[in-house]
Design a protein that fits this description.
single chain, about 180 residues, 2 strands
């Protein structure tokens, strides 16, 4: 299973990288469609850019679950992976933004791909080393994944007024 899992995680990295990159531009290309804005970034805030990692990752995970014959502990691993990837992205942004005083596009793009890599590396490691998976753990993980997805929708329309949610270009929040 390890070789098969590793292959699927590499495919997931490529899928998430491509779909997330395209999703960066979809809201504007859709004519600022509200439904598209639920899943794609509506501004240049750090929070909105996390959608570019979260939604493609979860879409791929849903198909990967069946491709891998429904392994136990899968959703727990994916939850840990996506949280790790998003935290890595946010941490890198604030570290280089604090060090350099701005966020160059090249570093923003690089932090996205590093976050994607972290998400898949962590989920791979957790699945590969899973010893005591439970159905309850997967159910709780699915509920938490849904809660994270719902928070993206909620905060698109009602963002907290903190720097994570602020578009640095125009000093605006949300849609």
């Amino acid at each position: 299973m390890n070789k098969k899992l590793f292959k699927y995680e590499i495919i997931g990295f490529v899928f998430t990288g491509i779909v997330g990159s395209v999703a960066h531009f979809l809201y504007e290309l859709s004519g600022y469609n509200t439904v598209v804005g639920l899943f794609c970034s509506v501004n240049e805030s750090v929070w909105e850019h996390l959608k570019l990692l979260f939604f493609p990752y979860i879409i791929y995970a849903a198909s990967e679950f069946f491709l891998l014959n429904k392994p136990k502990g899968f959703f727990r691993a994916k939850l840990i992976g996506i949280i790790s990837g998003m935290l890595a992205t946010v941490a890198m942004y604030y570290i280089y933004n604090g060090a350099v005083g701005k966020s160059p596009d090249l570093l923003n793009i690089l932090s996205f791909f590093i976050g994607v890599g972290v998400a898949y590396l962590v989920s791979y490691t957790v699945i590969k080393n899973e010893k005591e998976a439970s159905a309850a753990g997967d159910i709780i993980s699915i509920l938490l994944i849904i809660a994270i997805g719902a928070s993206f929708a909620l905060f698109t329309f009602y963002p907290p007024f903190i720097p994570l949610f602020e578009d640095p270009r125009y000093a605006v929040f949300g849609q």
